[in-house]
Amino acid sequence: MLSFSCKAQNEVSVNQNKSYSSNPKLVVGIVVDQMRYDYLTRFYKRFGEGGFKRMINEGFNCKNNHFNFIPTKTGPGHASIYTGTTPKYHGIIGNDWFDKNLGYDVNCVSDNSVQPVGTISEDGKKSPHRMISTTFADENRLFTQMHGKTIGISIKHRGAILPAGHTANAAYWWDYDHDGNGNWITSSFYMNDLPKWVKDFNASNISESYFKVWNTLYDIDTYIESGSDLNTFERIFKGKNTPTFPYDLESLKSQNGNFKIIAESPFGNSLTTDFVIKAIDSEALGEDNITDVLTISYSSTDKVGHDFGVNAIETEDTYLRLDLELERLFKALDKKVGKGEYTVFLTADHGASNVPNYLLSKKIPAGLFDESKMFDEMNAFLEKKHKVSGLILSRINNQIFFDHNKIEQNQLDLEELKETVGIQLLKYRLIDKVYITSEINQFESSNGYLESLLNKGHNQKRSGDILFVYNPEVFKDTEWNRTGTDHHSGFNYDTHVPLIFFGKGIKQGETLQKTEITDIAPTISALLGISLPNASIGQPLEFVLN
Question: Which of 127, 182, 299, 338 could bridge across to 189 with cysteines, CB 3.0–4.6 Å?
């Protein structure tokens, strides 16, 4: 059997052109940040026909789709969706982690070697350099000799950067945090100056126009799929006395981070759609027969979820509004690219738990664990035992990092320290399991469901010496987690997320067969006839493809 490399160059070109003509002109990957699968079913009857329902009715719904690693967080989630592999191989082990070489925490996309573009904020010093594998967007760029474009867009930098990969033409994120300027920005990793269309968008009044009143889309009494609007389980914005509708963003902005409050409302998703549609038009995405890739992450769902929780009317309203944003996006794609000429998948980067205090009020076991207190107690215990202070450097992402230099200098036994600390950790009521890595930091225990997830999330060079797992519905005790929700675990509320394909090359149907998040990139690669991402471990979902 002859490979393409054995054929004449002109024949290669002919075959590639045939491939291009049968492929979608544009692949659109949509990640809804913090979307549990049951939001599809819980709010289904309230969705219109053009958003979520259009995808389900015209496309293929994988109803039992799960993350297959821990931790379930935004950075690892986005990286895994697009690389088809897990933190074990792509290296994005958290949103942030303790860097053993630097001796401090790093962000998954921070990069001091690049410069901000469109802002002076440190938020612009970002790139995908810490992700060590390719995405399917990278493979598409290589396959098309860099002619197929890739654009990544999200309010969050990591939601824009990681999906688009290393070879992207651009990734854009919104400068909203720490009193940002409200512009869409990028970094010198991609370009040295913003394109005119981005400058024009930033110069318009579109971002500022969302400083308006957020009230429920429909009569609040019709939101029967959610709890009471007035309760004690939700965050209260500064300047309000209760976490209740309406929210006047104009009057609240000065006390709540200015543009940040837009990101923490459904209007952040509306702004994202505005920018996405402008990008499709200005970058001529999907206008020829060479497949382009557009990655979109809707971030405001996550921010609303963290603030208000799974059972909040605010969360339901955000998803009803997102449904309208999807309809608006699909109509724009129908018009600009052509109905039946593009392919879309929609999934999430993780789910979320109900608010622990809400669950406790319903007699369901849950809780908050004081990690800072545990960290101090463990170091005090070791100092008393070994007469050496500060033997534990970090306790981020449910992992313990030891000071290996101190251990070596004081001729302490690393494995004995791990076992000693592991025994102490198991004495805490809300910690259910503790795992100790080998001497070369290899996660060796892979028997059982959670052990398999921990193994796939463990990176030998970057992860800690000890991993611990909380009881279900338990999170670290922070002021943020005392209201609203969080995520990180391998339990179903965090792993079970939507996966819907629709558009060119996709069958109509549904399945309850278990699929995994790492299957998405191989499926899109198979659809396009390109190489799988270089570290991919997933399987193409043949049953969704025509």
Answer: 127
Q: What is the DSSP string of 328-388?
A: HHHHHHIIIIITTSEEEEEE-S---PPPHHHHHHTT---EEE-HHHHHHHHHHHHHHHHS-
H or E element, residue 170:
strand 170-174
3-state secondary structure of 491: coil
Tokens 């107690």 belong to residue: 377
My answer on whether omega of the bond before 71 falls inside 30° of 0, hence cis, is yes
% helix, strand, coil for the chain, step of 5 = 40, 15, 45
pLDDT along the chain (546 residues), means of 10: 32 40 93 98 98 98 98 98 98 98 97 97 96 98 98 98 98 91 97 98 97 98 98 97 98 97 98 98 97 98 98 98 98 98 98 96 97 98 97 98 97 97 98 94 85 96 97 89 93 98 98 98 98 98 97
Among residues 375, 383, 370, the alpha carbon closest in space to that of 400 is found at: 375
Residue 74 bears catalytic tag: yes
Q: Which of 41, 72, 74, 315 is catalytic?
A: 74
Spatial neighbors of 367 by CB under 8 A, at least 6 apart, are: 356, 360, 430, 471, 473, 474
Per the structure block, which two tokens stand in for 255?
């006390």
What is d(CA 341, CA 289) in angstroms, rounded to the nearest whole number?
A: 10
Q: Do the Cβ atoms of 156 and 112 come closer than 8 Å?
A: no
The secondary element (H helix, E strand) that includes residue 404 is helix 404-409
Report the relative pairing of strands 247-248 and 213-214 from DSSP bridges. Answer: antiparallel
What is the pTM assigned to this prediction?
0.95
Cα separation, 344 vs 340, in Å, equals 10
Per DSSP, which regions of 225-291 are E strands?
247-248
